[in-house]
Amino acid sequence: MIDHPVLSDARRTPPRAVAEAAERGLHLRSLHRRGGTDVGVRRARQLSNREPVSDRDIKSMYSYFARHAVDRRGRYWADPDKPSAGYIAWLLWGGDEGRDWVDGLRAELREVGV
């Protein structure tokens, strides 16, 4: 699958804030031994290394955030001492910064029919 040229490599590269959120997620997962799946851990490594995302990655991330927005209402969301598994998973995918970044990328792809 070839990625649409409407998004440059620079636009596809995760911003520093997204990379930092993913790193926080990896740290919290290691510390608390919960949160996220193997897929989420792979995504966090991709984001924290600031590796460009494909069209498929963008769609996957967009879908993740749409499905898991409800998790924000859960107990211990962002609790500094006992963060919820959902919060840790959210960070693995780039956190709020990742959601906002991917929302913009997804909108650009939709404009060209991808």
Description:
There is one protein chain. The protein is mainly alpha-helical and 114 residues long. Helix content is 62%, strand content 0%. It has six helices and no strands. It has helices at residues 9-12, 16-32, 38-48, 55-68, 85-92, 95-111. Helix 2 (16-32) crosses helix 3 (38-48) and helix 2 crosses helix 6 (95-111). The radius of gyration is 14 Å and the shape is globular. It starts with 8 loop residues before the first helix and ends with a helix.
Instruction: Round the Cα radius of gyration to an integer and report it.
Output: 14 Å
Number of strands: 0
- N-to-C SSE string, H for helix and E for strand: HHHHHH
Percentage of β-strand residues: under 5%
Oligomeric state of shown chains = single chain
Tell me about the largest β-sheet: none
**How far apart, in Å, are the first and last alpha carbons?**
12 Å
Q: Could you name the ranges where pLDDT drops below 50 across 5 or more consecutive residues? A: none
Tally of helical runs:
6
- Arithmetic mean of pLDDT: 95
* Anisotropy-based shape: globular
> Which structural class matches the secondary elements?
mainly alpha
Amount of helix: 55-70%
